[in-house]
Amino acid sequence: MVHQKITYNETDTIKISLYEYSKFSQTERTHHSPKNLSLTGKEDKINVSATETIDNIAGIDDFEKLIDQKFEIVNVDWNMLNGRKSMEKVENELFIKTLILELSLLSKSKGTFQIGPSNYDFFIHKSNTDYFNKFVPNDKGSYNVTEDGSTRLKIKSNTLTIKIE
Questions:
Q1: Would you list the DSSP string of 39-89?
Q2: 44-59, pLDDT tens digit by residue?
Q3: Could you tell me the CA-to-CA distances from 110 to 34, 92, 158, 160, 165 in Å, in that order?
């Protein structure tokens, strides 16, 4: 997660953003399984619905509870379809930058607050559009993404500390 500065006035709008930086264009990010999974069947039709929670989107357990207690939400920008991608150079290396979640918040009180870290399991899928040059196909035509050959990675973001005066 990132925010613009560390110290804010009580009347300031605080914008926090969570991005994924990756060398891979095809990733699947999960925190927990969606809650309230339901199946409905009628006349040979089955509808499946799942309710995604803000905790799962942010990758932080009890995130909604923290936000409700300490902040008022002014705006939410959730990249639900995972389509907002751009390229960004980090330490002289290009990465695919994908917005996950952006919140604009007003503080309910003064104090120092910590948010995060986000915890995700990532599943990596090699695509012809990926430009990472260290991929070498193995005998079955798939790719080794990590040294042990796993395509599942556990990733944790940084923790944010926000001070409201």
A1: EEEETTEEEEEEEPPHHHHHT-TTHHHHHHHHEEEEEEEE-TTS--EEEEE
A2: 666 666 667 888 889 9
A3: 34, 38, 23, 16, 5
